[in-house]
Specification:
With about 300 residues, the protein is an alpha/beta fold. It has nine helices and 15 strands. Strands 1, 2, 3, 4, 5 and 11 form a six-stranded mixed sheet that branches. It has a five-stranded mixed sheet with strand order 8-7-9-6-10. A four-stranded antiparallel sheet has the order 13-14-12-15, with helices on both faces. Helix 4 links the parallel strand 7 and strand 8.
Length: about 300
Amino acid sequence: MSATRYTYLGPEGTFTEAALRTLPEAATRELVPMVSVPAALDAVRNGEAAAALVPIENSVEGGVTATLDELASGEPLMIYREVLLPIAFALLVRPGTKLSEIKTVTGHPVAQPQVRNWLRAHLPEAVWESAASNADGARLVQEGRFDAAFAGEFAATTYGLEALVTEIHDAENAETRFVLVGRPARPAAPTGADKTSVVLWLGDDHPGALLELLQEFAVRGVNLMLIQSRPTGAGIGNYCFAVDAEGHISDRRVGEALMGLKRICPNVRFLGSYPRAGVAVEDVSPLRRGTSDGEFMAASDWLARAQDGRA
């Protein structure tokens, strides 16, 4: 395995590359762009790279389905950290292009909902066609296949384009969450401000099936930060659920919730416990009464004493 190589959703000039370069270790790694999320993750699976950075969630569009589906299937991988990146688009064009001349635009599918209102107001007749990534859209504009692309302003220099309009976003404070993914290993020690990600499969479809999953978290005071259903491919009505929960697998409340889920789910895939980006320990909400490690251990001790006739 190449311990010095990281892959990412390319080509050069994507928001994913910008997010990857915020990591301190990126300065000492070979950063290799890949044509797709599956390609970036497969490079980790087959040992060509130590880790891959891929987008997993957008504050406007929600989960990035390509990443969620890849993590839920195939050889298991694990999330080691997350990166949050503020997102604002620039309209990149070939030098000299005027706004009135733009008839076709492109960008990543996740970008379209973030600029839909701007497009309606300024380019109502323009035809949108999705690209593999925002930077790939810029490359297609460079080649003359489209008139304009929505991408990061930083991509303009890479592809010989100019930013006709900058700071485009329908939603203020839009951001995308990226995850650094590697091969499974022991999770890093808890920091006190952590997140645990899993994928859960329902055993069978019956009234209250999803509620049963959620109750395993709720009764232990574990807050859920994301839950998204994804089709399993086994037919209409067959779903798995990607879940992000507050806390670390070594926290008693989280560990016991996962054990409860393992008892009732045919499959539980652990995707990792890792520090929450941009959240300090002092910013974490206080635990509900009865859900701290100390209270779990006290209850376990009480049970042991009761079994021994010492309660």
